TrEMBL record:
The chain crosses the membrane at residues 6-24, 36-63, 83-106, 179-207, 227-245. It holds the Pfam family MFS_1. One of its GO terms (molecular function) is transmembrane transporter activity. One of its GO terms (cellular component) is membrane. This is Major facilitator superfamily (MFS) profile domain-containing protein. Residues 1-343 form the Major facilitator superfamily (MFS) profile domain. PROSITE patterns: MFS. SUPFAM superfamilies: MFS general substrate transporter (SSF103473). Keywords: Membrane, Transmembrane, Transmembrane helix, Transport.
Length: 343
């Protein structure tokens, strides 16, 4: 990259490309699953952690060995000495290309039956259901004639931009008082998560320094080793969440409460660390606990939204989550980070 601005532009472009999958993965998976297996949407967040772990381990390898020292200047740090982040992008980008080719050429996904029904494409719905029953050796008694006898959807959606359709999807999220309350709460939840996470990360190092905490040396090796450890610890969270959401006493809301409570307690405890070992241990525990919450809300959001407007509602949540992230970074950039007031 010739400049920092161009680097940020490229990051924005590939981040935008990845954003759509974030919403559609959970939505499509949920619509294909039998109700008894809906907990798998929560457990699917494990693959986030797997991806983060792979990236963390690659970062540890490349950034530790092919980066300038943290105290290097522009005069002493040359391109040949600072190829670590480039190698990391090359490798991760290459993995994405390979996965994309596999996805397009070898993994054939079909439309969900719910969406096809909404488009009056009953023949395709029937073919998909027959294929699923054959693949998984399940009995299937529905006939195409019986399916068509149930009537048609009057207002189908066409593949074109429509302001009326967008308004319809948005208003559908607030069609009843209870649904409107749930929608507002879940949207605020996503917004606050996006806002407070960067704020906590920005202020915490300065707070710990002001309290005399010894978090370890700031070498590239230690920094990226700790980062990789945190990502590995994050693998535990979705597994725990997937188990808890299917238990009678916890369910979705109980698991969210547990994830939030443990994350909050650990983050408050993290402000009192004094040694490098405490730094690594508590931060790894925070990564695991926060992934309990993230994994659950990732699945709970499309479940609680009405099926016809699920993608729209989920998209709004994710967009506001990113807006919250921008707000958090801006506050951290212009605020006095040396204050201990937020903690």
């Amino acid at each position: 990259m010739p400049s920092y601005v161009s680097f940020c532009a490229m990051v924005a472009i590939y981040s935008a490309g990845a954003g759509g999958n974030y919403i559609l993965d959970a939505t499509n998976f949920l619509e294909f699953l039998p109700v008894v297996y809906s907990w798998l949407v929560t457990a699917m967040a494990l693959w986030w952690a797997v991806g983060y772990t792979i990236a963390g381990l690659l970062a540890w390898a490349f950034m530790s060995n092919f980066s300038c020292d943290p105290d290097a200047t522009m005069e002493t740090c040359h391109r040949a000495q600072n190829m670590g982040w480039r190698y990391l992008h090359f490798t991760c980008g290459g993995l994405v290309i390979v996965m994309s080719i596999i996805r397009v050429l070898f993994i054939r996904m079909v439309h969900t039956p719910k969406w096809l029904i909404s488009q009056n494409r009953d023949d395709e719905v029937y073919q998909i259901l027959v294929g699923l029953s054959d693949k998984y050796n399940r009995s299937f008694k529905l006939t195409l004639e019986h399916l068509k006898s149930q009537g048609q959807v009057i207002n189908t959606e066409k593949s074109a931009w429509s302001k009326v359709r967008l308004v319809s999807h948005f208003s559908g999220l607030f069609s009843t008082r209870r649904l409107g309350y749930s929608t507002v709460v879940i949207i605020i939840n996503w917004l606050l998560i996006g806002t407070v996470s960067p704020l906590y990360g920005l202020f915490l190092p300065f707070y710990l320094k002001s309290q005399g905490a010894q978090t370890g040396d700031d070498s590239n090796y230690t920094t990226w080793r700790n980062y990789a450890i945190n990502q590995v610890a994050g693998l535990v969270g979705p597994v725990i969440a997937g188990f808890l959401v299917q238990t009678r006493w916890f369910g979705r809301r109980g698991t969210l409460a547990i994830g939030a409570a443990f994350t909050t307690a650990l983050q408050l405890g993290y402000t009192q660390i004094k040694t490098p070992a405490q730094n690594v241990g508590v931060s790894a525990a925070i990564s695991a606990a926060s992934n309990i919450y993230y994994g659950t809300i990732y699945a709970y959001t499309p479940e609680i939204l009405p099926a016809a407007h699920r993608a729209t509602g989920y998209a709004i949540c994710v967009v506001l989550n990113r807006v919250g992230g921008v707000i958090g970074v801006l506050v951290g950039s212009y605020a006095n980070v040396n204050t201990v007031a937020p903690l």
